[in-house]
User: Fold Peroxin 11C from Dactylonectria macrodidyma.
Amino acid sequence: MTETATETAAFEAQLPLSEPVIADADAAPATAKQQKAPFKLTTALASAPSSVDAFVHHLHRCLKTRGGTDTVLLFSAYAARLAGAILAILGRSALRQNARKLVELAFQLPPSTSVNLAGATAPPLAALALGLSKRLEAFVGMLGEWRTMNRLWGIMAMWLAAKDLLLRLRQPASAETDEKAPKSSKFNTTVEVLQVISLTAYHIGEATAWFSGKGVIKLSAEARGRFATVSVRSWGAYVFMELTRLLVERRRRTVSEDATVEKEYKDDWFTKFTHTAAWAPLTIHWGYGDGFLPDIAVAALATYPSAALMKDLWRSTA
Assistant:
């Protein structure tokens, strides 16, 4: 098992409900058109240090929490993996094209001519692309281990989540609300309980497989593989339960009379559903057999939600 599951982040973008109201201003005279200032290289170079400093400060704010660190690592890993997969495809394509040209030239030679293709060299650009792809693959592997170590603390978050859920379930109903809970409430509670169980199994399975692989826990390779499989499948169960919850919520929800509120809800629901759905085929790919998706498909599917999470994190830490 070379892949590990990813933790669902919980960053929510705070979007304004409407555009800011701007008072109408007097129309500017036609002769007072402002001309765009010409680009100056010296000005751009002078402002570069301050731009880099602002970027570093912003990135530092993103990395202050465990969830923020995981989001940055998640986006970096899959963006690099996607770039590496694209470079590998381009490099192999260039090699095949070069090989076809060599074969075509060989057939054009007289029959008595001997051809030695052993000394043929790869095109420089193809060799460069394949070399960069290998380096990015190593970089992605390093980030993957970093993310796994960062997620080891997730079992504490699951302890707190389970404790909070248990306290809410044990809380007695007030006299005013001493009625049968609606079906939607019972459904959400059931899903929440099952999701806490599945994510707890995910963290325990991943941590056990990781410690076993590093020699901290003595397990056979077969047992380590089973723990890793249980981890990924538990995460997959969470993903499909979340998709089901979103679909049921959408079907049971009462449409708001406020068009702005309704549009905001639909946009938010669609974003959550599509981002969660992108992980669904990956949980099957990693959790069953040797995988059925090509590397570029895995990278593209994972880059889509990870880029959205990074965008939300960047906005929330502005």
About this structure: The chain has eight helices and no strands.
